[in-house]
# Entry
Amino acid sequence: PIAAATWFCGECETICLADIDADGRIGFTDLNQLLDQYQAVGQGFSADLDGDADVDFADLYLLLGAFNQPC
# Structure
């Protein structure tokens, strides 16, 4: 599943995908959740930001690109 904060539209939607905990900011909690799921393979991981059924560097890259941004 994709983070609950994805209901935003436009440019913010890409940033909000990285808001894994849906608290309105991309921060350390989101990073910790991604790292906890890092290298996981399969459907249903909240940290699979690019939707390719694994949590890898591409997802980390997306999160770090949005880090410390509001949703």
User: Anything to note?
Assistant: The radius of gyration is 11 Å. Residues 28-37 form the longest helix (10 residues). The CA atoms of residues 14 and 53 lie 18 Å apart. Confidence is low (pLDDT under 50) at residues 1-9.
